[in-house]
Amino acid sequence: MKNEKIKNVSFRAKSRNLKKIPPRAHFVRLVGMTIGIFFIFYFLYLNFKTSVFLKEKDRINVVFYSQNSKLFSFSKKEVNYLIKFPAEIEILVPGGYGKYRVGALGKLVALERNPDLLKKTFSGATSTLVDLYFFPRKTEIYYNVFNDSNFPAIGEILLGKSNANTIDRLFLLFKFFNKNPVDYKIISLDKALFDQEQFHKDFQGNFYKKTYREIGENVQIIYTRSYSTALLFSQMIDGEGIRVVDLSQEKEVDKNCQVITKKLSLISQNIARYFNCKIRIGETTVSDIILKLGNLEKEWAVK
């Protein structure tokens, strides 16, 4: 009986202690949990909203920069491509940098603190638009080393620096989980001097987005200084499956790039979004869409 009384007294004491927790502490705890849940859902919302793989694109182009740099072009219904870039190949770097060895490109990115150079360089080199890029956290200059690996390591996908969000990293991890080289058409570049023009001619049409071809809209590109830069844009846009019908030079300099279209469309909005251009409704005579390069001429300048 005594033991039972002692237990009852002890239980009541604990109950009193629990009741003594001030309402303010409960409120603070509740607010903290609410804020934490809000940030988790907001993080997931942003990831789903900005995910490249959830946009239902016909083709997604991903670069893995490393000792053995690669560009993967994923398609749901068409051929998947894997383009291998040895470290010794020289390619043109947009922005007025001239030609660089692929193996030294990471050093340039680190010095300029501009990872988007990877996107611009491989987009220009392959005449298509790169969506995502990955590169090592540690900056190194690479030289040719024989390595027959076609696919990135798990660490490159999950831990490498990238413009990909968490959702896209998980999508890529899933894609490479059951990797099979047979699923890809492999293009190995083995020349010391990469011929960008020849690559464009040889593989024109391989990376087309079928949806763009079905829409059938065409583009006029207007530049002020550099025909070479305008031609680069023409090749990249054409490589997406969008026909470029004219390159025109104007004396009037536009500060920022513009996309002009008679009506908003998938193509006009995607071009504006990719190159970060203002889009506006206006008259077009030669084409369905006008791309006025403006500041892009300097940012993508080629010598």
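The record above closes out task 2.4. Task 2.5 opens with a second protein, given below.
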Amino acid sequence: MKPKLSFAHSLPLLFRLFRKEQTQSWKGLVAWILLGFPVFVTLLAQFNPNPSKIPPKGWFLFMINNLFFQYFLWLIPFLYASEAVIEEIRKGTIHFIWHTPLPKSHFLGAKFLITLWWTLPGILITETLCFLIWRIQDFYLLLALYGITLLGCLYFISVFLAIGVFFKKPMAAGILYGFFVEVVLSTLVDSEAHKLPALHKLYGLIARFDPKISAKELAKYGDPFWNILFLLGG
């Protein structure tokens, strides 16, 4: 029996196995198709006339908000569930190689990386292309969006990983979280909404870059914790 690998050694191997598993599974194909929809719609919208007659910067930020909503609320939980091949790998390849299962923390770490790998590039590339198409000429804004995107992904993926630890149906539980906590709760408890949903925090941070965007439409903002977390000041 071979010795059990450390977390640092098993993580890259598990990451490669997860990626290989997804390229050979129909779930991987479905995930890629779903991932392409927000990117396609957002890019296509950049070429449409601006119906609200708002400035290009405001229209650009509206599109980014829409992109965030689709990714963070609906696609990340689906991605997390579609890549939940832990049991198959644990009982198959890994067991065959080492003749012993690895700790669950190793698989959770690999799932975190593979979900980040599938989610983050699409958002960053779309943000960059939209930024160039609209010729925003505000490099600080682009860097700030990168930071918001990265930390938003880290937060929501962590939430769905935690959901997956406690629930056997991570996709269903994740979507319920997204719907009831991020959408319904903020609607029913409007006066306290700015203290609860994470997605509205992201919207509020983005809204700060254009005063012509209604904070009521996007989110209420100004919470010191999130300002510090996203390195955007008070």
